[in-house]
Design brief:
This protein has eight helices and 16 strands. By secondary structure, the protein is an alpha/beta fold. The protein folds into two domains: 262 residues, Aminopeptidase (3-Layer(aba) Sandwich); 111 residues, Alpha-Beta Plaits (2-Layer Sandwich), CATH 3.30.70. The strands form four sheets. The protein has an eight-stranded mixed sheet with strand order 1-2-4-3-5-16-6-15, sandwiched between helices. Strands 10-12-8-13 form a four-stranded antiparallel sheet, covered by helices on one side. The chain is elongated, with a radius of gyration of 24 Å.
Length: 390
């Protein structure tokens, strides 16, 4: 691929300047559809207001591979000095989804040029609403992806420089579950605490007790997180409130740890509240499952990346959450981190990506798709097919 002959960088900058929140990615979807159709790429009718599924190939026998890029932005006010910074006040691409969409569009355009020689089918998913963990289910519910045998996802990673890919087998993203604990006592005047049952000490004790769940009840060789992130009680200075509320998140990498953490937190809340004469109502909102990369597919993706001249970092996973796991329910896949520099954490108002990572990312996913659809005896592609030097 000649250096950005598809115009991916201006496309990326346009998406960055016009970010849209989860479920409202109408302009973004329109721009993607315009580019796909202009290239003669088949766009499947998903019947959804935002997001798109493109199909390339299908003329020759082979496997069906899915590639996924998310496209939504965040409710964050951008604080960068980029000439293409957000024009939508209070909305920002602070997680690289503009980069994902542009890179996967580039992969689609590269694959379209080679469609006549493509064994099998590649379906490229431009997914809305990843940040609300609802978009993957919407795309899968269309039934248009039922025949996909493997899935691959792109995600920017600010701690790697451009030219580096993070490919790791096993768990790479956690289950992002949310909890809410309502502690109820009996309100009273602050001058007469003996006439009530104060829920605040009970809530504080629950916060402290919860810190021991990971250190004393979970396997120390397996990562887990229990974080209380929000505490609320009362609305004035001289009244003991009737109730206090705690919210937070639990992150785990294994199903059994998820179940254990949930029940341990429930038990801790209820028993601790009871010790203070209060009650605790426990609410658990389950997020997507952990993202677990297939070992065999990771090995193949790493081999290809190294053949193409990338630096491959077998980095550890993170405890962030991702609904890409929905695509991996019953089939294998790989969540690939693409180094984008910037060195500012995602979801930060100063988050940026290095545009030099864009074209190589598109090249990698196009090459990976061609490699995987023809894996059944059709031979390997050459690096020169995509103009990449070792």
């Amino acid at each position: 691929m000649d250096m950005d002959r598809y115009g991916l960088i201006p496309f990326f900058e346009d998406l960055h300047a016009h970010p849209e929140l989860s479920g409202a990615e109408h302009r973004t979807t329109g721009k993607l559809l315009e580019a796909l159709r202009a290239a003669g790429i088949d766009v499947l009718d998903a019947g959804l207001p935002t997001g798109a599924i493109a199909r390339i190939g299908g003329k020759r026998p082979g496997c069906v591979i899915g590639l996924r890029a998310d496209i939504d932005a965040l409710p964050i006010r951008e604080e960068t000095e980029l000439p293409y910074r957000s024009r939508n006040e209070g909305v920002m691409h602070a997680c690289g989804h503009d980069f994902h969409a542009a890179a996967m569009l580039g992969a689609a355009l590269a694959l379209k040029e080679r469609e006549d020689g493509l064994d099998g089918t590649v379906k490229i998913v431009f997914q809305p609403a990843e940040e609300t963990a609802s978009g993957a289910k919407r795309m899968l519910a269309t039934g248009l992806l039922d025949d996909c045998e493997e899935f691959y996802a792109i995600h920017s990673y600010p701690w790697f420089p451009a030219g580096t890919l993070g490919i790791k087998e096993g768990p790479v993203m956690a289950a992002p579950d949310r909890f809410r604990i309502a502690v109820r006592g009996r309100g009273a005047h602050g001058a007469e605490p003996n006439t009530g049952i104060d829920p605040i000490p009970a809530a504080a004790a629950i916060v402290l007790a919860a810190q021991h769940i990971v250190s004393r009840r979970m396997d120390p060789f397996r990562a887990a997180v229990v974080s209380v992130t929000h505490m609320e009680a009362g609305n004035t200075w001289n009244v003991i409130p009737e109730a206090a509320m705690l919210e937070g998140t639990v992150r785990t990498l294994h199903a059994e740890d998820r179940d254990m953490a949930r029940e341990a937190l429930r038990e801790t809340a209820e028993r601790t509240a009871a010790a203070y004469g209060c009650t605790a109502a426990f609410d658990w909102r389950e997020g997507p499952a952990p993202v677990v990369n297939d070992a065999g597919l990771c090995a193949d993706a790493k081999a290809l990346a190294e053949e193409m001249g990338f630096t491959v970092d077998r980095q550890k996973g993170t405890m962030g959450g991702e609904d890409f796991s929905e695509y991996l329910n019953g089939r294998p896949g790989v969540f690939v981190r693409v180094g984008t520099g910037g060195y500012v954490v995602s979801h930060h108002p100063k988050f940026t990506v290095d545009e030099r990572a864009l074209v190589p990312a598109a090249e990698f996913f196009a090459a990976l798709a061609m490699r995987r659809v023809k894996r059944q005896g059709q031979g390997e592609i050459r690096n020169s097919d995509f103009g990449i030097r070792n």
